[in-house]
Amino acid sequence: MKFSKQQWAWIFYDWANSGYGILVVTAVLPVYFKAVAQSAGVSAADSTAFWGYANSVGTLIVSLLAPLLGTLADYPHTKRRWLNCFTWTGILLTLGLAFVPASGWPLLLILYVLTNIGYSGGNLFYDSFLTDVATNEEMDRVSTTGYSMGYLGGVLAFMIFLAAELTHGFNGWLSSVGIAKFSFVLSAIWWIIFGLPLLLHGKQVFSVSATRQPLKDGFIRLGKTIRHVAQYREITWFLVAYFFYIDGVDTIFTMATSIGKDMGINTTSLMLVLLVVQLIAVPFSLLYGWLADKISTRRALLVGIVVYLFICLYAFKLKTQFDFWLLAILIGTSQGGIQALSRSYFGRLIPKDNSNEFFGFYNILGKFSAIIGPVLVGVVTQWTGQSTLGAGSLSILFAIGLILFWQVSKPRQRR
Q1: Are the beta carbons of 186 and 161 closer than 8 angstroms?
Q2: Are 63 and 185 in contact (CB under 8 A)?
C-alpha cells in the first residue's frame, strides 16, 4: 500500500512523540525525579508516592476532559488547532524540564503533569485524525504503520540517550544531571521535527455543522450521545471489551520491570529487554496490519487477545530468565498490533463526523483501564508472595475481554 502525504504526516506524529513516551515518561524522568527529590530530603517512599500522584492527576484531568474536547474539535477546521494547542504545550514544557534547578523537585513534578496533559491531549486529536487521513479499507495499514514507526522512533531516541549515558556525557561534556536534561531537550526537538508535517498540514475531512455557541452546543451533543448510547450497540460492546483487554496489555508492560527485579534480573538486562521488545514490535505491528487484510481486523484482534491470554497463563510457571525473555518476545509480537488494530477497528465503527467525540470516550476507557490491572497484580502478589502469580492473574482480564469482544458484530460504516 502506498501512503499519501497526509497519511505519512499522521504516521510520523507517532514517531515524533515517541521520544517523550520512552525518555520522559518511562526511562529518565522517573529516575531523575527520585534522585532530585531524595537529595532534597524527600524519602524514597514519599518520592515514589508523589510520582504516582502526578501520573494519576495528569491522567484524570485529560480523561475527564476528553469527550468535551472531542465535541469541540468536531467543528469545521478546529481539529488541527486543538492538536497544535496541546502538542505545543507538551513540547514547550518538556523543554522547560531542562531548566528546572536540581533543587526544584516540586516544580519538576508540576511541569511533568502539564507535559503529560499536553501529550495525552494531543494523542486524542491525533487518534481521531485517523478517520480523516484513511478510508475504512486503509485504516488497519495506516494505524499499524503508525505504531510501528512510533516504536522505531522511540528506540532511536533512546539509543541517542544511551550513547550519552555510556560515553559519560559525550566524554565529559555533560554531567550526570546534564545527561538527564539532555534527554528532555532531545524529546522536545524530536517531537517538533517529526510532528511538524501534521501540525502544519493536517486536513480535517469530516465535521459537524458549525455553530455560534460551540461550547454550549458541545455539551448538548455530548449529553445526547450519552443518553442514546444504546443506539450504538457495536460501539458500546467494543468499548467495554477494550476496557478489559487493554488494561491487561498496559499492566503487563508497566509491571514487567518490577516482576523482572523480583526474579533477580539486573537493571542492564531489563533495559536490554525493553529495547528488544520495542524492536520486535516494529515489524510485528506491520504484520498485524497484513494479517487484518487477510483474515479481517476482528479476527486479527482475537488472535492478539488470545496471545496475551497465553502470556498470562504462562506467567504462572515463570521461573527462569529464559522464561522471562520468552514472554518479553511474545509481548513484543502483539503489543503494537493489538493497540493499532483496536484504534482502526474503533475508527470504522464510529460516525466519522463525530470522530473526536467518540475517540474521547475511547481515550477515557484507555486511561481508566490502567486502574484495575495494577491493583489486581498488587493484591494477588501480596496475598501469595509471588509477583509471577500476580502477573498470571491478569488472564482474568483477557478472558473477560475475549468473551465480550466476541459479542461485537462485524463493523459497519456509520454516519
Answers
A1: yes
A2: no
- In terms of Cα–Cα distance, which of 345, 403, 334, 401 is closest to 373? 401
* Phi, psi (deg, nearest 5) at residue 241: -65, -45
Between CA 276 and CA 209 the distance in angstroms is: 47
Q: Which are the contacts of 209, defined by CB distance < 8 A and separation ≥ 6? A: none
**What's the pLDDT at 7?**
96
Name the class of domain 1-227: mainly alpha
Amino acid at 282: V
**Cβ neighbourhood burial of 10 (10 Å; 0-12, 13-18, 19+):** buried
User: Hey, CA dihedral for 118, 119, 123, 126, is it positive or negative?
Assistant: positive
Task: List where CATH 1.20.1250.20 sits in the chain.
Answer: 1-227, 242-415
Q: Is 275 exposed, middle or buried (0-12, 13-18, 19+ CB in 10 A)?
A: middle
DSSP letter (8 states) at residue 351:
B
Backbone φ and ψ for 262, nearest 5 degrees, come out as -65, -25
**319 to each of 105, 219, 270, 327, how far by Cα in Å?**
39, 52, 16, 11
Instruction: Report d(CA 203, CA 9) in Å as an integer.
Output: 10
| Percentage above 70 pLDDT, the chain | 91
Burial 239-253 (b: 16+ CB within 10 A, else e): bbbbbbbbbbbbbbe
Whole-number Cα distances in Å, 206 to 126, 216, 260, 353, 413:
14, 21, 46, 5, 14
- Amino acid identity of 117? I
- The CA distance from 332 to 311, in Å, is 11
In this predicted structure, the answer to whether residue 415 has a pLDDT above a threshold of 80 is no
DSSP letter assigned to residue 346 = H
CA angle 315, 22, 67 (to 5 degrees): 90
Cell triple for residue 62? 485529560
Four-way CATH pick for 242-415: 1.10.10.10, 2.60.60.20, 1.20.1250.20, 1.25.40.10 = 1.20.1250.20
Query: Cα(281)–Cα(21) distance, rounded to whole angstroms?
Result: 15
Answer whether 186's CB lies under 8 Å from 17's CB.
no
pLDDT digits (tens, 9 = 90+) for 235-279: 888 999 998 998 888 777 766 766 776 777 776 777 788 888 889
